[in-house]
Specification:
The chain is an all-alpha fold. Helices cover 34% and strands 0% of the residues. It has three helices and no strands. The chain is elongated and about 45 Å long.
C-alpha cells in the first residue's frame, strides 16, 4: 500500500484556530521550506501514484520533505479544544 503523509497543509481549521502572525512564525521556524503546503501541493503525488508510471512502486510512503514532526500548540487555553493539524 502506498500513502501520502501530508505534512503541514494549510486548511480552514488551521486558519480558524491560529492567527496569521502565529502561522507565519510557525512556518518560519518549524517548516523546512518556510511556508505551509496547500492541498494542490499533494495533488501531483496523488495523480502520479494513481498512474501507470507508479506501477512498480509498492508499499511506499511518499515522504514530503517540507513536513515537520512538531505539533502546533493550541491557540486557545482550553485543553482539548484543538488536537493538532
Amino acid at each position: 500500500m502506498n500513502c501520502i503523509p501530508p505534512g503541514r497543509i494549510m486548511s480552514a481549521q488551521i486558519r480558524r484556530n491560529y492567527p496569521e502572525d502565529y502561522r507565519n512564525q510557525f512556518a518560519e521556524t518549524e517548516i523546512p521550506v518556510k511556508f505551509w503546503g496547500e492541498r494542490e501541493d499533494l495533488a501531483v503525488m496523488a495523480v502520479w501514484l494513481a498512474s501507470p508510471l507508479a506501477r512498480y512502486r509498492r508499499g511506499h510512503s511518499g515522504r514530503r520533505r517540507a513536513a515537520s514532526p512538531r505539533v502546533l500548540k493550541p491557540a486557545s487555553s482550553e485543553a482539548g479544544q484543538f488536537s493538532g493539524p
